[in-house]
């Protein structure tokens, strides 16, 4: 599959949510543990040789499972092949826990679910307590407007999202 | 990599979990936009008609709508989307910053389709979604704390059931109880510019922290407003505090988009 490698490399240089030197072992049988700088940027996990500026590789973190393997080690695997694991060894249980939590939240799909969650929670509260919220009205309207257009994009009415009728016309579009 | 070094074996291309990427392209996660677009092969190349699928911050393209595997993907993080003057009608461009960065010129088949794509692609970054979710998180905290009632304790967000660990993807329906985040979002490091020489920003110790303070459990439980005593602040002041934070965040995001 072709991909824009330069842009991915540029992304690897952006500020990271988390970065640390960890032991890393690839999924192939007989892989050796290597020291790697591991860096989490948006929904990608980059790994570098410790003295190099360009990453050895990247893992897209969608549809993945992060499991604690040992008190201070975790693995990442992907839904389509759960036995194929990337192993990481941390220097402490605490560091391991931090990474597991961060990686589980590092997907676009998780962020999407958070959006719906907060929106529903806000609806629950604003549904009940309208009177006291007039001052918050403007701010909420902005958030709701953003949400509405977002939700229209992410909740197509059809089960097969590629069918042409799955995308409702936006108000104002021809 | 250094200039003047003797020619040796070529540096291996960056590895990427392409199989997983291909799976993500064709799984049942929500699709943010899909349709035929013409894609220019290169600077002087012809346009090819491809089936494009936007999911998250990935723009996949297939030979046609029935293909099982994408021909390729454009990773959209950090891009800007613009209309362009081109021989093709309904053309627009996906641009990336940096020297030698490629610009993808795409053309839709109608004005409406073009507008739809430009809108969808402009909002496709993970960063943008994170900003929206943060705004909502703050709004939720604000409306929970408001209504003229006194705030006895800082409200922590309820902890919904954690994500199921079963590998089967959960079909995502708006009305179903969706798997939800167990913890509020981690703070993004606000002042970590990439180093000049492009070397990765890293730390050997576990002293690296995503924010100025050690990660508390959970961050939003402490008052996130700039001043202390939230318990007795009137709602209007609370709202103003959160509003300022949102404006600042938005300003940051907008200006970060402009930088090369």
TrEMBL record, chain A:
One of its GO terms (cellular component) is early endosome. One of its GO terms (biological process) is endosome organization. Residues 15-108 form the PH domain. InterPro entries: Boi1/Boi2-like, PH-like_dom_sf, PH_domain. It comes from the Eukaryota. PANTHER family: PLECKSTRIN HOMOLOGY DOMAIN-CONTAINING FAMILY J MEMBER 1 (PTHR22902:SF9), SESQUIPEDALIAN (PTHR22902). This is Pleckstrin homology domain-containing family J member 1. It comes from Piliocolobus tephrosceles.
From TrEMBL, chain B:
Residues 205-227 are annotated as: Disordered. Forms homodimers and heterodimers with PHETA. Interacts with OCRL and INPP5B. This is Sesquipedalian. The keyword Phosphoprotein applies. Coiled coil: none annotated. Keywords: Cytoplasmic vesicle, Endosome, Golgi apparatus, Phosphoprotein. Plays a role in endocytic trafficking. Required for receptor recycling from endosomes, both to the trans-Golgi network and the plasma membrane. InterPro entries: Boi1/Boi2-like, PH-like_dom_sf, PH_domain. It is found in: Early endosome; Recycling endosome; Golgi apparatus, trans-Golgi network; Cytoplasmic vesicle, Clathrin-coated vesicle. One of its GO terms (cellular component) is early endosome. GO terms for biological process: endosome organization; receptor recycling; retrograde transport, endosome to Golgi. Belongs to the sesquipedalian family. Residues 30-126 form the PH domain.
């Amino acid at each position: 599959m072709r991909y824009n490698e330069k842009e991915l490399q540029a992304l690897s240089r952006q500020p990271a949510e988390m970065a640390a030197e960890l032991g890393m072992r690839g999924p192939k049988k007989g892989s050796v543990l290597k020291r790697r700088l591991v860096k989490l940027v948006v929904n990608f996990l980059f790994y570098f040789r410790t003295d190099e500026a360009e990453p050895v590789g990247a893992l897209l973190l969608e549809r993945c499972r992060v499991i604690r393997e040992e008190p201070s080690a975790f693995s990442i695997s992907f839904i389509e092949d759960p036995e194929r694991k990337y192993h990481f060894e941390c220097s402490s249980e605490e560091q391991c826990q931090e990474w597991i939590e961060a990686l589980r939240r590092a997907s676009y799909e998780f962020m999407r679910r958070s959006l719906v969650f907060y929106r529903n929670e806000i609806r629950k509260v604003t549904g009940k307590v309208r009177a006291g919220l007039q001052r918050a009205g403007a701010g909420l309207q902005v958030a709701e407007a953003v949400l509405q257009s977002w939700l229209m994009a992410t909740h197509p009415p059809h089960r097969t999202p590629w069918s042409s009728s799955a995308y409702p016309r936006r108000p104002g579009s021809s | 990599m250094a200039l003047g070094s003797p020619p040796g074996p070529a540096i291996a291309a960056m590895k990427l979990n392409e199989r997983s990427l291909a799976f993500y392209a064709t799984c049942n996660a929500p699709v943010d936009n899909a349709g035929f677009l013409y894609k220019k092969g290169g600077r002087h190349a012809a346009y090819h008609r491809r089936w494009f699928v936007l999911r998250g911050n990935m723009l996949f393209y297939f030979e046609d709508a029935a293909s099982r595997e994408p021909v390729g993907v454009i990773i959209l993080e950090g891009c800007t989307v613009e209309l362009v003057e081109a021989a093709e009608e309904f053309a627009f461009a996906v641009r990336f910053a940096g020297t030698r960065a490629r610009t993808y010129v795409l053309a839709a088949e109608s004005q409406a389709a073009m507008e739809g794509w430009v809108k969808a692609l402009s909002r496709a970054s993970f960063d943008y979604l994170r900003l929206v979710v943060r705004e909502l998180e703050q709004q939720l905290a604000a409306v929970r704390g408001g209504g003229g009632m006194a705030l006895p304790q800082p409200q922590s967000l309820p902890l919904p059931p954690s994500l199921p660990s079963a590998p089967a993807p959960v079909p995502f329906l708006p009305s179903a109880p969706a798997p939800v985040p167990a913890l509020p979002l981690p703070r993004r490091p606000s002042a970590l510019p990439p180093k000049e020489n492009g070397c990765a920003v890293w730390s050997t110790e576990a002293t690296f922290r995503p924010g100025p303070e050690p990660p508390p459990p959970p961050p939003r439980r402490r008052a996130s407003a700039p001043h202390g005593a939230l318990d007795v602040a009137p709602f209007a002041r609370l709202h103003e505090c959160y509003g300022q934070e949102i404006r600042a965040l938005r300003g940051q995001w907008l200006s970060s988009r402009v930088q090369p």
